[in-house]
UniProtKB/TrEMBL annotation:
Keyword Oxidoreductase: yes
SUPFAM superfamilies: FMN-binding split barrel (SSF50475)
Protein name (database record): Diguanylate cyclase
Positions of transmembrane segments: none
Molecular function terms from GO: FMN binding; monooxygenase activity; riboflavin reductase (NADPH) activity
Length: 159
């Protein structure tokens, strides 16, 4: 295989950029990720790829839940704050206010357009990122707006 062609072709996949909320028994966490897609209407399923060995991956595996926050166009700065390890301070992560519901307990950001909460129903732990298939068991809308796309940010993750 031509490695440059592989990279160019894979970078042709278009993405959003989301804040994925996770938790364990003692704390909550969130990271910015783009490897997310819906895979079923009924039941509503999504597939999320999470870097193996990260705190987020370990928390999703252990807790069996995660949240997905849909950011708005223009929230590149907010997304960028979650490419690195963050620690909660009260009800804030990287300075951004979150809350939790009784559905999963994973962080939901007030500044996000909307969110959904998932319980893991399947895992594919292969490669350098592991796939978690989540059934959507809760959702909410904070406001209307255009979602942030990876293209808008100028970042790449894939190739
Ligand atoms: C543009 C971009 C997209 C990313 N997408 C993903 C992704 O889809 N899945 C993932 O596991 N990490 C992704 N990352 C990396 C995570 O944001 C990063 O590893 C984060 O620090 C993980 O948090 P943690 O160490 O607290 O678990 C992406 C990074 C960038 C710069």
């Amino acid at each position: 295989m031509d490695p440059q062609a592989k990279k160019t072709a894979l970078r042709g996949i278009t993405y959003g950029l989301y804040l994925i909320g996770t938790k364990d028994a003692s704390t909550v966490n969130a990271f910015a990720g783009n490897w997310l897609t819906q895979t079923s209407f009924d039941p509503p399923l999504v597939a999320l790829a999470v870097k193996a060995g990260t705190r987020s991956q370990e928390q999703i595996k252990a807790s069996g839940v995660f949240s997905v926050n849909i950011l708005a166009s223009g929230q590149k700065e907010m997304a960028t704050a979650f490419f690195k390890h963050v620690e909660p301070e009260g009800n804030r992560l990287a300075g951004y206010e979150f809350y939790t519901t009784e559905i999963t307990g994973c962080p939901i950001f007030k500044d996000a357009l909307s969110y959904f909460e998932c319980k893991v129903v399947e895992a594919v732990e292969r490669g350098d990122h592991y796939i978690y298939v989540g059934e959507v068991i809760g959702a909410g809308v904070h406001r209307e707006g255009e979602p942030l796309t990876l293209r808008e940010t100028g970042f790449y993750y894939g190739g």
